[in-house]
Amino acid sequence: MSFADLGLSDELLKTVTDAGYTEPTPIQASAIPSVLMMRDIIGIAQTGTGKTAAFVLPMIDILAHGRSRARMPRSLILEPTRELAAQVAENFEKYGAGQKLSMALLIGGVSMGDQIKALEKGVDVLIATPGRLMDLFQRGNILLTGCSMLVIDEADRMLDMGFIPDIEEICTKLPAQRQTLLFSATMPPPIKKLADKFLQNPKTIEVARPASTNTNITQFVVPVAPQSFEKRKRLRQLLGQEEVRNAIIFCNRKTTVRELNKSLKQHGFRSGEIHGDMEQPQRLAELELFKRGDINILVASDVAARGLDIKGVSHVFNFDAPWHPDDYVHRIGRTGRGGATGTAYTFVAPDDAENLENIEKLTGQKIDRLELPAPAEEERPARRTRRDRAPRTAEVEVEANAPMAETVEEAPRARPRREETRREQPQREQARREEPRETRSDDRRRDRRRSHTDETPDDGGWNGPIPDFLKVSFGI
DNA sequence: AAAAAAC
């Protein structure tokens, strides 16, 4: 099977082959001819299966004829997150280069002015997240009566995010005579209902068993202590011993994302972060830095878990085990894309045992446990000076002969005591400050209270008892 | 328990 057999126009075919694609993926091979025949489609496919091109390519050919009118887009693509919407827009720019199709990207977090201007001129393709689309619709900037093609992408994610009522409302604004494509990784009952209601005689295409993980991805569970500084230490150890070209590190909370990125940077890693509390331009900029390789580590919340297609991500680390098992499948799916191989490490603290069980139940496979050797002694991050902020390649020393521990509980002390260290490596002692008091029971509290990371020298923070006047003003 | 999405 080749792209030439799918019925795409010669011009588009040339663009596709020039881009280096010769063989369509299974979802492309089955969806493209049907979309060109104007059928409604239910596509059950994981992200990373080539799903986006499966609808973008035939849409370009379908929209090649005809002209758009002011405020009346001819097609609409709905995406759950802003980044995904932007990514689909990039695809249209890439493949639709020769076709002079007009496009508007309607997402929140950026100014409405340009979006409204584009709508006024008339667009062939509208790519939107539901919030901004509804907003502009209610302001009267969009008429959907001329929209004869609708794509609902990542429908199950839309469901998770509570977008289904919005989607239903949008569907009723579109003409009844239209083509609708619905893509989802899974088919929970509400999505099935949505499809029954708004699709006509759809052809169902299923290319990947839901909840199955890509076999290109080597997966490991890494038992870790629950304290965040222990997890960070383990992470640095792994980053140092693995051939990490490119890694996304997922955390469950936005605050953890910020802390971890700060810590990694202090240790000289070229890292960045992305989460929903950041300004939209900043989010896109960080993503761009990562894609270009200016940074090779992206610390992320689940905003980046689904659908993001970044080439050549060699590793995914779950710094926190995800709460929901389907998030696990999506997160690790950021690596091993397009036939490449990838490695996924998931940190599992004792409290995460149940989450891990659910993950293994969902994927139907037991994930290998990886017991790390005791970490080698690290250099303390240097005090930050201007010179030190220059990015350098990540390096962590790992002791070659470190004993392999059977379980975490039996693991030797993570760091040698000061006396031993001084004897063994006197030249490095000067660079190091006092060891963190790892055994102290108040470590967790301290860790939570202080916004900066444990590696920061303790000269700026408050470690003593809280004085009475503070207790009063904070109502403690 | 979180995150995401409109101002």
Count of DSSP E strands? 14
Measured between the Cα atoms of the first and last residue, the distance is 69 Å
Mean pLDDT over the residues: 81
The whole-angstrom Rg is: 25 Å
Using the coordinates shown, work out and report the CATH topology of the largest domain: Rossmann fold
Task: Tell me the number of structural domains.
Answer: 2
Low-confidence stretches: 385-476
Fourth-tier CATH superfamily name of the largest domain: P-loop containing nucleotide triphosphate hydrolases
The order of strands across the largest sheet is 3-4-2-5-6-1-7
Number of helices: 18
Helix fraction, binned, reads 25-40%
Give structural notes:
Keywords: ATP-binding, Cytoplasm, Helicase, Hydrolase, Nucleotide-binding. This is DEAD-box ATP-dependent RNA helicase RhpA. It catalyses: ATP + H2O = ADP + phosphate + H(+). Its EC number is 3.6.4.13. It is an enzyme of class 3 (hydrolase). This protein is an alpha/beta fold and 476 residues long. It folds into two domains: 204 residues, 3-Layer(aba) Sandwich (Rossmann fold), CATH 3.40.50.300; 192 residues, 3-Layer(aba) Sandwich (Rossmann fold), CATH 3.40.50.300. The chain contains 18 helices and 14 strands. The chain has a seven-stranded parallel beta sheet, with helices on both faces. The chain has a seven-stranded parallel beta sheet with strand order 10-11-9-12-13-8-14, sandwiched between helices. Helix 3 crosses helix 4 and helix 13 crosses helix 14. The termini are far apart. The C terminus is likely disordered. The structure holds one DNA strand of 7 nucleotides.
